[in-house]
Amino acid sequence: xxxxxxxxxxGSYRIALVCLGNICRSPMADVxxxxxxxxxxxxxxxxxxxCGTGDWHVDGPMDDRAAATLIAAGYDASRHRxxxxxxxxxxxxDLVLAMDAQNLADIGGRTxxxxxxxxxxxxxxxxxxxxxxxxxxxDAGFEEVLAMVERTAAAIVAALHRESTSGWTTS
Length: 171
Known about the structure:
Blueprint: E1 13-19, H1 25-39, E2 46-52, H2 64-72, H3 88-92, E3 95-98, H4 101-106, E4 116-118, H5 139-168
Parallel strand pairs: 1-2, 1-3, 3-4
Helix pairs in contact: 1-5, 2-5
């Protein structure tokens, strides 16, 4: 069972997803996790953001292959615009999840309270490790990332739901 860090602000929970350029992995996770949060009726209480550690793609759309993979699976990939990580994200979010070990190191590494860690630390099937970067590969890499993201997003939402019923959504 996934343990989530405590919300910093009563009544809300904020999650940040971090990869390198914010055009493949973290926006895919953002779209899927946001959809799952909406389906669970938690959208007014849980917010999701994504960013990249690099600045190459700021304000640009998601990678076309990432968007096509999401659209084929029934998700809306149209609203994404790439953003860059800033240190304030660590203070503004209850949970910060990096897509790989290098991105985790770039944002300062794991925290003892579990607020900053790898996305796949929450993967119910294969916990730990990196979400592989599909950018230089083919369509199969994007489908592999989507499968990891969907199962991990489902586990995160289940944990959010448990937490919301135990009190973090009340002031």
